[in-house]
C-alpha cells in the first residue's frame, strides 16, 4: 500500500471552540504526519470549488455561510490509507450520532442549525484528496 495524502479541515466551529490542537493531535497520535498546515479564511469561490458536488442542495448555502463564518485550519496529512483512516477518526457526518471516541462523536452535536457543524472535513477518495489539496494549497 503506497503512502496517501488527504486534506483535513478544522472547520470554523472547531477553531472557535479551541479544539484545533486536540483535533490535530488525535490524527497525529494515530500515526499520520502533517505535511502542510495553515490558518485560512475561505472565500465563496474557493468553497464553491471545494463543495462542487453539493451545489444546489438545501444545506449548500448554510454550509457556505458556516464555512465563511471564521478562520479554518487546513492541513495535509500523509500515511498509508490515511484517507479512510482520517474518516474513521473523524466519525460519521451527523455529530449527534457519530460514535463516541471519534472527533465528531466526542465534541459535536446538533445546534439546531440548518447545517451540521461537525468540526472537520476529510477527503473521501484519492481523486478528491488531490483535487482538494490543489484547491486549498494552490
Ligand atoms: P462529510 O463531511 O462527512 O464527508 P458530506 O456529505 O460531504 O459529508 O457533506 C459535507 C458537509 O455538509 C458535512 O460535513 C456537513 O457539514 C454538511 N451536511 C451534509 N449533509 C447535511 C444535511 O443533511 N444537513 C445539514 N448539513 C449537512
The gist of it:
The chain is of the alpha+beta class and 138 residues long. Helix content is 41%, strand content 20%.
Describe the protein in words.
With 138 residues, the chain is of the alpha+beta class. Helix content is 41%, strand content 20%. It is built from seven helices and four strands, in the order βααβααβααβα. It has helices at residues 12-16, 20-30, 44-50, 60-68, 82-90, 103-107, 126-136, and strands at 3-10, 33-40, 72-80, 120-122. It is globular and about 40 Å long. The mean pLDDT is 98. Bound molecules: inosine-5'-diphosphate. Major role in the synthesis of nucleoside triphosphates other than ATP. The ATP gamma phosphate is transferred to the NDP beta phosphate via a ping-pong mechanism, using a phosphorylated active-site intermediate. The active site is at residue 121. One of its GO terms (cellular component) is cytoplasm. Pfam families: NDK (PF00334).
Features:
138 residues; alpha+beta; Alpha-Beta Plaits; four-stranded antiparallel sheet; 7 helices; 4 strands; globular; binds inosine-5'-diphosphate; nucleoside diphosphate kinase activity; NDK-like_dom; Nucleoside diphosphate kinase; metal ion binding; ATP binding
Please describe the topology of this protein:
Blueprint: E1 3-10, H1 12-16, H2 20-30, E2 33-40, H3 44-50, H4 60-68, E3 72-80, H5 82-90, H6 103-107, E4 120-122, H7 126-136
Antiparallel strand pairs: 1-3, 1-4, 2-3
The chain binds inosine-5'-diphosphate.
